[in-house]
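User: Good morning. I'm curious how flavin mononucleotide would be positioned relative to this chain. Could you predict the structure with it bound?
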Amino acid sequence: MSTRILVAYASVHGSTAEVAEAIGKALQKEGCTVDLAVMKSVTSPGDYDAVVIGAPVYMGKMVGDLKKFVGKHRDALAKVPIAAFCVGVAPLGKDPGDVDTVMNIFRTALEPLEPVTVTMFAGKIDMQKLPFMHKWIWKKMDGPVGDFRDWEAIGAWAGDLPGKFGISVGA
Ligand SMILES: Cc1cc2nc3c(=O)[nH]c(=O)nc-3n(C[C@H](O)[C@H](O)[C@H](O)COP(=O)(O)O)c2cc1C
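Assistant: Good morning! Here's the predicted structure, ligand included:
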């Protein structure tokens, strides 16, 4: 039976969902069977050989669904290898917060899980799609606007995951 990997994500405006999808595709290319799911809807993450967790950062905090997901499934998730990615604009070198700060917040939100790898990807800001409040905040902060997702880096990170999980694909 092929190696089964769950990619569980949270996303407010859709860009993390697309990153999760790209990670799923890269894992499929490596020979894994992948289920992609909004973390809210996940019921049995312990049924998988490994789990990839992804969430965006907003106003210096991880989206609430992440803590809920980790809290609800901590026992099941403690038994499988985990990799985690967060998405935001911190890697662009502008405010809000630098990558190290966000990564600390992310790692804390993941506790007590101990992922084999944790990373941060640059995300996307589409002003036209933001609701009024987010648009207002972003203008006030003079935040960067555009699609900053580096699909090559995302694919490369995902392609290395089976090795990092220590699972033999296709076995
Ligand atoms: C109101 C608002 C606040 C944000 N706060 C942060 C932040 O504190 N740190 C960061 O790195 N990125 C921040 N971002 C950028 C988002 O994390 C980025 O746009 C991400 O791609 C959003 O993911 P989503 O489309 O899956 O919701 C913020 C974006 C908005 C609109």
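The chain has one domain: 4-165. The first strand starts at residue 4 and ends at 9.
Let me know if you'd like a different ligand tried.
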